[in-house]
Every structure is written in C-alpha cells, then in structure tokens.
Amino acid sequence: MAPPPPPPPNEDNSISHDSSSNDQHRPISTIVIIIAMQTEALPLVDAFQLTEDTNPLFPKGTPWVRYYGSYKALNVNIIWPGKDAVLGVDSVGTVSASLVTYAAIQALQPDLLINAGTAGGFKAKGACIGDVYVASEVAFHDRRIPIPVFDLYGVGLRRGCSTPNLVKELDFKVGKLSTGDSLDMTPQDEASILANDAVIKDMEGAAVAYVSDLLKVPVMFVKAVTDIVDGDKPTSEEFLQNLSAVTVALGKAVTQVVDYISGKSLSDL
Ligand code: SAH
Would you say the CB of residue 202 lies under 6 angstroms from ligand 1? Predict the structure, then answer.
C-alpha cells in the first residue's frame, strides 16, 4: 500500500496545538516518535512497515531522517537525527534531539510526541536490564548554574503527559528520567541525578521535553534499560553488550503503546 502524502506545510508558520480541552478529547491522529540511534529505530520501522522519506521535509544537508506510514489509523512518523556528517556515528545527545524535535513539530504538527530509546538504570531504585519505563518527569543533571532561579532553569524539570490508563493496562514501570550529554557519570552528575530522584538516565529526554513544552505538544518518554549505572560493569561495555536485545524489548513496548493509542484521545490515556 502506498504511504499517504505528508500533511500540508504549516502555512502561517504557527503551531495550532495547545493543551486545550478540545485537543484532549479529539482522537489522536498524528504521532512523532523521536529516536536517537538507528539500532533503536529500525525494529520499529519494520514493525510499523514505514517508508523512508525520499523527499525530506527537513533543511537540505541535515542528516535527519523521517520514516512514515499509516498504522492502525494513525499517521506514524519516526524521526532519527541521522549520522554525524563527519564522524559517521549516530547524532545522540540533547542538541540534535532538540533540533529534530523542533523541525518535526513544525513540519508535521503531531498530536503527540514519543521519545523512545535506551537508558541507563539505577539498581538501587529497582531498575533491571531490559525493563521498560514510562518517564513521569524529566530533568537535566549536567546544567549546573549555582545562582538562584538559574539553578532551577538549569535543572529544567518537566512532566510527561499524563498516561495513567496506558501504564496500568500495559504494566509499564513508571519513574523519573534524568538527562545529560555524557554516557558516563561524574560524581557531580551523580549528585544531581540523586537530587532529581531519577531511576533512569539518558542523553535526550529533557531536551525533547523542552521543545515539547515550548510548542505545547504533549510528550511521552518510553525508555528501555541497556545498562546498570550503579553496577560493576563499565557502562559503555554493558550498553553495547545489551543494545540489540534491549532494542527488541523497546520495539515491543513502543508497538504496544502505539496499539493502545490507536483510536483514543489524549484524555483516554
Ligand atoms: N557507544 C554508543 C554510544 C551511544 S550513546 C554507540 O555505540 O553508538 C548512548 C545512547 O543510549 C544515547 O542515545 C542515550 O540516550 C542512551 N543511553 C543508554 N544508556 C545510557 C546511560 N547509562 N547514560 C546515558 N545515556 C544512555
């Protein structure tokens, strides 16, 4: 089946979405799933039978990739920031995540954003390899600005959209997510993560939340644990060892989420 054409561009350059009660009760129709790594994205591109966009919506020269198609009456878009043009690795981290989120919202005007990916987990808080979490709140742990009020700006605490029925029915773990631009963790980061009361740690969530909040598009975070941060194994080794198995778990979880969303409104979630 031929994929549907992309929606018309946003002519007046404004975003019509806000969290007005109207939007809360309208069936969700367009979703954008932001995923940092190709290995995380491909199982979902397969599951939803999406097509890579050959006529990109994004500025020429950017490595950003959109996969799209229709799945269970939803317009599903997976946005991957692509490979770094010089180094050839996935464009992980907050800068690319916020840019693609902004560009995807402008181009597609989604009803809902989902930031899906892998994360480190804290076993002291109950996380195990392969667990899938829906993050209730996200904050940064590497933006230290010790001046009153700027300190709070640095932490950038934001909430994911409310999904009590979804997490209950699909039996996901729920916890707080802390975001920083490093895979490893300095003692200062660790103190901030503790202060954020986080159970998982990633490199994109709070950046996606910032843009979602700016443009008033609700966001959910679905994160699967690839490595235990407070364990004995070096994070990068454990991450690479578990990445492919955990992306299968992530793919399953995101498919369940999208199946659940189909035919529902935000207020049903
Ligand atoms: N060495 C990896 C680098 C990926 S960076 C590679 O082979 O390409 C890690 C990615 O997984 C980021 O997108 C981040 O969001 C997530 N992640 C997984 N475990 C993490 C952890 N312990 N801390 C921070 N981010 C983590």
Answer: yes
